[in-house]
Amino acid sequence: MMRSFPSCGWRIRLARVRLARVLAAAAACVALPVAALELPRERAVAGGVALVELGPALVAPQASLDGVPVLVAGRPGGWTAVVGIALEAEPGSVDLEVRAEGEPPRRVPVAVGPVRYAEQRLKVAPGKVDLSPADLARHERERLRSAEIVATWSTLDPGSLRMLQPVPGRRSGSFGLRRVFNDQPRKPHGGMDIAAPTGTPVVAAAAGRVIDTGDYFFNGNTVWLDHGRGLLTMYCHLSSIAVKAGDTVKAGARIGAVGATGRVTGPHLHWSVMLNRSMVDPALFLPGGG
Fold first, then answer.
1. Where would I find the Peptidase family M23 N-terminal domain in this sequence (predicted)?
2. What is the pTM of this model?
């Protein structure tokens, strides 16, 4: 006589429900540090930031632009890609590649609007424009080193997507300016200049980890901070550096002092913000959008 056993279908369904709850809780724990953040102001132009809604998903989707990972913030109820647009980008559209668990890869077009940055003409020491062979070789070494730093991608959660102004003082509208040194055109200006006296303390704009410090030919004494997921900040022309590579710093912690090292016309802080290897306007990350 065969004994009948109750169906095990309910056990399978219960296991699936429990698994879904565990995954949802895990996803929420991963997302919460980012989900609670106020996003930067959107300005979808060259040197700006685009905020792309990716929709709900149990696990955070992965996004990339031209093969470079993009920061994704949110929680299972809705995710947003925070996309840095390169200063060299032309008006039109770029494709964000999105991969969500259990779905085929998709491309999301991101419209890039037109923008016109002003031109700035500066006079500096001739040796800072027409480089000697030794200085040129040094610059090339530093360029390669900077490229490695810029490619940093860590799983740190950004402490904030809104930042502190790293030094008090008058902020110039210098981001994106077409720089002309001694009548010779150079790359657009990839940061914000803040005028302040030599020795004024410079603080971390957000919590992060020091990934590089050093004396660079053009940037002078410099500190790089990694805030996680491709969000970096750079502080240049310092008179002194108060941190070392590997240090963890809180938002507002002193990392150096204003100076006039490198290629400058006077004491000030050059502050850059980078997203997915693109220099973007720091003003978009300040309270009120700058």
1. 43-109
2. 0.81
User: Same domain, yes or no, for 163 and 84?
Assistant: no
The Cα angle at residue 171 between residues 43 and 120, in degrees rounded to 5: 80
DSSP letter, residue 101: T
The residue out of 115, 146, 177 marking a domain boundary is: 115
Does residue 1 form part of some domain?
A: no
- φ/ψ region of 16 (left if φ > 0, alpha if ψ in -120 to 50, else beta) reads alpha
> Which two structure tokens, joined as six digits, stand for 7?
């169906």
Q: Could you give the CA distance from residue 279 to residue 115 in angstroms, rounded to a whole number?
A: 15
**Residue 30: strand, helix, or coil:** helix
182 falls in which pLDDT band (50, 70, 90)?
A: low
Q: Which residue, of 54, 85, 115, is where some domain finishes?
A: 115
Helix %, strand %, coil % of the chain (to 5): 20, 40, 40
